[in-house]
Amino acid sequence: MPRPLWSGAVSFGLVTVPIKLENATEKHDVSLRQVHVEDGGRIRYRKTCDIDGQVLTEDEIGKGYEISKDHVIPITDEDLAEMPLPTAKAIEIVAFIDRSSVDAVQYGAGSYYLTADGPVAAKPYVLLRKALERNEKVAVAKFALRGRERLGLLRPLGDALLLSGLHWADEIRSSEEITPPATELNDDEIDGALELMETMTVASLTDLDVTDHYTEALHEVIEAKAEHRPPKPAEGEEKEAAPVVDLMAALEKSVADARERRGDTAGSGEATVHEMPAKPKKKTAAKKATAKKTAAKKTAAKKTTRRKTA
After folding, report:
1. pLDDT of 153-192, one tens digit each?
2. What's the CA gap between 259 and 253, in Å, rounded?
3. CA separation for the pair 240, 233 (Å, rounded)
4. DSSP H or E run through 18
5. How many CB atoms lie within 10 A of CB 199?
6. Residue 161: closest CA among 189, 204, 191, 131
7. 0.85 cut: is pTM over it?
8. At 106, is the secondary structure helix, strand, or coil?
9. 8 Å CB contact between 43 and 36
10. What are the residues whose beta carbons fall under 8 Å from the beta carbon of 92, sequence distance 6 or more?
11. Do 149 and 87 meet the contact criterion of CB atoms below 8 Å apart?
12. Across the chain, how many H-helices and E-strands are there?
């Protein structure tokens, strides 16, 4: 079991749910050490006191706030624990909103599972989870963690409650400074992009077959070095980004490739993204109508001539 990061309670109106906070994700990164290139010796970082030069252990290191170069106010863990902050020991739910109203850019670092702290907490914990499931809302919450107050989104995930960190509004940059200039697109290009998106659509992330090829390749390099052999060549061909000259041709080729990867036999051969011949059809119909009117006039004229002759 992972070690809880924080313990306290979820404040839901007058309902309090004792909980513990645990990491919802884990990293599988390959850790590389820094070494001296000449002799392979490990590079170590030592924390020293700039007054007496003594090398310190973690137990001997505290926190402090620097007012000036020669004046630092010490701040202890007890000082932080006793801060006059409502969220210091509670996750405070401040509102409920539709999940669709939260843009992905607002999600910050960190997702945490909330676990019920003891048998007494089980009932209010399940009550909050089922209430969120029933009305399809998510809870906006404030909480304090790792030296700062944070904003989060509380929602059900399976039979558990998940708290995802959010950025504060003033932490999100405006996108106006990086948007491209006004660009014209025709309907065929948009339809081609939509068809490509439809071809590449899956039901959910769990249905997506993706692999961390970088970590696999790094493991291969390490194993090859240990066995004094060259690493195995990469499977498949390396794709190079080519400049887009003909957007429609690129979309057609992309749709065909996506269908081939999915084994869609109906999509074999040429792609089905084509320009719509709407205007030529209208002209042909107009020509047929004009021809019919001309023929009718000629027939009427012949009948009139015959009557006069008679």
Report:
1. 999 999 999 999 999 888 888 888 888 888 888 888 888 8
2. 10
3. 17
4. strand 15-23
5. 18
6. 131
7. no
8. helix
9. yes
10. 11, 86, 141, 142, 143
11. yes
12. 6, 9
